[in-house]
Amino acid sequence: MIFQGYLIFPTTSAAFVASRALASPSFAKFGLIFEHCPAPREYSHDCTLAIYLESTKEDFSKEEILYLSTEFENLLAQKEIAFKFVCTSEKS
Known about the structure:
Number of helices: 3
CATH class: Alpha Beta
Low-confidence stretches: none
Shape: globular
Radius of gyration: 12 Å
Number of strands: 4
Largest sheet: 4 strands, antiparallel
Helix content: 25-40%
CATH topology: Alpha-Beta Plaits
């Protein structure tokens, strides 16, 4: 399946710190493209910033999504950044 999802942050500055982390070589192995966007209302009722993520490969497995989520949690916890991870990929 093609992975699509959002990282939703409580502050704009947290989103920018996270995007710098996503641009690091440690996340290049996942083959993700990302961009800033307003947080979708169905996932956040606050007017916050999110990062939209999409895989560049079509065979992203559920195990890779779980691993990716864990990597985000570990990295952003070190930087004391709170976020919400939402996977919007359709099941294949």
